[in-house]
Amino acid sequence: MKVLDFPLAKITISFLFGILVSYYCLPSIQVSFISLGICSALFCISFFLSKKNKKTNQFYGISSALISFCTGICVLLIHTDTFDKSNYTHSKTAFEEPQFITFTLREKLKSNDYNDRYIGLINTIENKTYSGKIIVNIQKDSTQNPLIIGNIIKVKTTLQRTSSSKNPNQFDYAKYLADKQIYAQVYCKKSEIKISQTIKKDIWFYSGRLHATILKNLESAHFSKDEMNVALALILGQQQEISADIIKDYQYSGATHVLSVSGLHVGFIMLFIMFVLKPIPNTRKGSAIKLFSILISLAGFAVISGLSPSVLRSVVMFSFVAIGNHLRRSGNIYHTLLVSILLILLFEPYFLFDVGFQLSYLALFFIVWLQPILKKIWSPKNKIAIYIWDSLTVSFAAQIGTLPLCLYYFHQFPGLFFVTNIIILPVLSFIMIAGIIVMIFAIFKSPPEILVYIFEKSIFILNQMIHYVASFESFVIQDISFNFYYLVTLYFVIISAIICSKKTSYSKLIVVFVSVILLQLSFIYTKKETADQKELIVYNVKKNTLISKRFGNNIILFTSDTTRNKSSKNNAFNSYLVGNFSVLNKSQQIGNVLFFNGKKISIIDSTGVYENKSQPDIVILTQSPKINMERVLTELHPKIIIADGTNAYAIQKIWKSSCEKKNIPFHATAEKGFYRLN
Questions:
Q1: Buried b (16+ CB within 10 A) or exposed e, 332-351
Q2: What is the pLDDT of residues 271-301, one digit of tens each?
Q3: Which helix (H) or strand (E) holds 658?
Q4: Which DSSP string do the residues of 87-150 spell out, in sequence order?
Q5: Could you tell me the pTM of the whole model?
Q6: Residue 335 contacts by C-beta under 8 Å, 6 or more apart in sequence?
Q7: Sign of the C-alpha dihedral, residues 179, 183, 188, 194?
Q8: Alpha-carbon distance 505 to 498, whole Å?
């Protein structure tokens, strides 16, 4: 592609590779910065040589790529908070015993049934200055004393590290938070916290106050709760209060992107602002006024929406689009995308590992690249047909570009995504325009009731349309097994096929055939890899004992729950099925003895009954059996004791102490996660 000839493309790609190497290989800071210094020296030498002799241009290009690569490595290391000696992760006592901790509330998160949740910035621990972000969980109570962004709170508590996933192939919440530089959580009650009268008044404080004012004025206008929560998500990107049923409808209909403020929403806002500014003439002065107005409006929208990362990404991207239009360089959108990616990742390199960042840029890239090709397939004359065809081509382009990534992360595919996009775009266009007007009113006072009524009903219609499409659940293909090999090879097939379709040649056809062969090889390799595997898994589930045996892609499930169908649909077990390309062969009631790979496994349940002469290799304890652990160890002589998630925490502490006396390993799934026996 010609875009790769653009120097910034090579710099950006090298920079991205540097971030990836830094993330996965974790090089030392000293070596990384020494390498950057050497590359900088080579770059300067090659720059001056290229001025004197054009034959050295190739050396100059290589040195540019190397310095970009090393910059990517160093930028990620600089933005990794654990390398900062003042970060709270270096305070060992804060994780071991209660300490007086002060922190500032930065961002409101989605609450759960028990706690209001925030992101907090650590200020001090036992009067020593520390820094870093944490998750703050404050127990809900009946007192009407809401906390606000900017509150400085002091509490005596213990920092708790976020535990990794306790079951195989499940979403790793600890890793997700670590990528956001959050390594700990605190849990406290409102009665335990002391709120300082001093409030930290930064841009996040004013953003929070503005958002609170909008919410208060919308509530005073008698805005229906469900519709208002969707409106806040559509316009301001605030999804915290949307009900689970509505989110499920949007997921099943393939319209989840509508609830997350992204390029679609910011693009609508930019088009609306350009429409309002249309009377201003396109003179040099007029164009400058338009650009300034657009940039200020987009920045204001980012502040109103709470400065969330997804909004900031989109605002930066469309700010560059606006600047490109002003400079009359709107013809090459690829360059604009590259500049915005490079700028965003220079300041927040961990965004590269954010699913939203990946999906938004891939969707936009494929819309720009693939949609014009799809549009040429048919040229309708009727205006309605043109609208439908344009919507279809945009939808298919975005879906093709994001399909492999969606399958890799979410393992499902909404079959009616194209229907959803066709029917919701007209309504969404109206909602965005009406929503902007309503939100502007709500900044200053309660919006007019007629305007609120129209806005509310339009959202109600949107929700009903989404619900209707989502009701066809048979079109939602779920539990699709998809690994990294499939991801890479499928993208290779898609990209090579698109390049070949633009201008077919023999060499391009060869590349397409090679990509298809590689995709087939990834299927064959995955199948062979799966067929050779044998393992037994003890899952960490609180109310049910789950143990599975896997031989290749066939699984036998052992469960204490008599409702076997319910057990087989357990999220922990289902994630394991999907992640290992496996199928459930049969499900059966768990017994007292299991055999796997030549090892004997004794299972002691709530009855506390076991054979004292069985001599098992492994003992699994479930349902909090009333046993004398020292007697069990003396009689059975096991090599390891495993306690699953159905056991009480207090009993497990006693068992662990007994095992330590006998020098026998004790594995509690609630503490260490699932147990795997190969």
A1: ebbbbbbbbbbebbeebbbb
A2: 778 888 888 887 888 888 888 888 888 888 7
A3: helix 649-662
A4: BGGG-SGGGTS-EEEEEEEEEE----SSEEEEEEEEEEETTEE-B-EEEEEEE--S------TT
A5: 0.85
A6: 3, 6, 8, 324, 329
A7: negative
A8: 12
